[in-house]
Write a structure and sequence with these properties.
Elements: E1 10-13, H1 16-20, E2 24-28, H2 39-54, E3 59-64, H3 69-81, E4 84-90, H4 101-108, E5 112-116, H5 118-122, H6 127-137, E6 141-142, H7 150-162, E7 169-174, H8 178-186, E8 192-197, H9 204-219, E9 226-229, H10 242-255, H11 264-276, E10 285-289
Parallel strand pairs: 2-10, 3-4, 3-6, 4-5, 7-8, 7-10, 8-9
Antiparallel strand pairs: 1-2
Helix pairs in contact: 2-3, 2-7, 3-4, 7-8, 7-9, 8-9, 10-11
The structure holds pyridoxal-5'-phosphate (PLP).
Length: 294
């Protein structure tokens, strides 16, 4: 059974750069919500699983790359809550090859893995592709890639509500932007959210549009005070630079907290640079959402 730790704990850290600018840094420990379903993945999946159960669905189908945290979280949720799970994985060259550790975890949690070529993967939400999946796997509820839909954004609004009165700025790393969409909607009137993009966007406006669309679908209109930072992706998704590694190693050594490197390290690198630039007013408080653990 799921016994999520909610609200997730908030922890203050003494960090030299922030202190020098008179700014308090808090860590919102969403990584501690559940050992198998960390962080924002729990907040995004929980309402989708509730809706699937209410609709009488017994299987979940979703999509991801070979290292997708979302696939792993969906597989774990299926095991814990008694759903069959099907993972449609990008890359038919992976079929038959030994599974990487991430996909091996999915399989160990009972997820059926279905590898498709990149062309099919791109067209995964088109009716003919979904029809072929239904022919093969029967009835299932579809959860989108990255888990971001309107229910997911509504689930993440609770993250914002938990941070009301706690910080002036709340910041989160953005992949699909679903977590930011909900976080910003749940914050109080005087608070603002910053999303640090970890993907190198084709267009800087693309992610902004996605977040606005999700807010429209989930809450009726774009809402909350939020903005995106796209200077800290370090070359793109799962890319790293010597600067990022040096920053993350030093942060870990200072605070004894291992950093997830795809999202969380880039968030903290970005916030540290923003503090250095004087973005945060002296006397203000910044909450960094720790969405996952390594
Ligand atoms: C998936 C994930 C994110 C990104 O969430 P989005 O809602 O897709 O923006 C951030 N951090 C971690 C650790 C994740 O696994």
């Amino acid at each position: 059974m799921l016994r999520p730790r909610l609200p997730s704990p908030v922890q203050e850290v003494e960090d030299e750069t922030f202190a020098r600018h008179g700014v308090r840094l808090l860590l919102k420990r969403d990584d501690l919500i559940h050992p198998d379903l960390p962080g924002n993945k729990w907040r995004k999946l929980a309402p989708n699983l509730r809706a699937a159960a209410a609709a009488g669905e017994r299987a979940l189908l979703t999509f991801g790359g070979a290292y997708s945290n979302h696939l792993r979280a969906t597989a774990a949720a299926g095991r814990l809550l008694g759903f069959a799970t099907i993972g449609v994985v990008r890359g038919d060259e992976l079929a038959g090859a030994p599974l990487n550790p991430s996909l091996a975890r999915c399989a160990a949690d009972g997820m059926r893995l279905h590898f498709v070529d990149r062309g099919t993967y791109r067209r995964k939400t088109e009716p003919d592709v979904l029809a072929a999946l239904h022919d093969r796997f029967g009835s299932f509820a579809v959860i989108p890639e990255g888990g971001s839909n309107s229910l997911a954004a509504q689930g993440c609004a609770e993250l914002g509500r938990e941070l009301r009165g706690v910080a002036d700025t709340a910041a989160v790393a953005c992949g699909t932007g679903g977590t930011l969409a909900g976080l910003a909607a749940g914050l109080g009137p005087g608070q603002r959210a910053i999303g640090v993009a970890v993907l190198k966007g084709g267009s800087p406006h693309f992610l902004r549009g996605t977040v606005e669309d999700l807010q429209r679908a989930a809450f009726g209109a774009p809402c909350g005070h939020w903005r995106l930072e796209d200077r800290f992706h370090c070359g793109g998704y799962a890319r790293r630079t010597p600067e990022l590694d040096a920053f993350a190693d030093a942060f870990e050594a200072r605070h004894g907290l291992p950093l997830e490197r795809v999202y969380v390290a880039k968030l903290l690198l970005g916030l540290t640079a923003l503090a250095e630039e004087g973005t945060f007013a002296p006397g203000s408080t910044v909450a960094a959402v720790i969405t996952g653990m390594p």
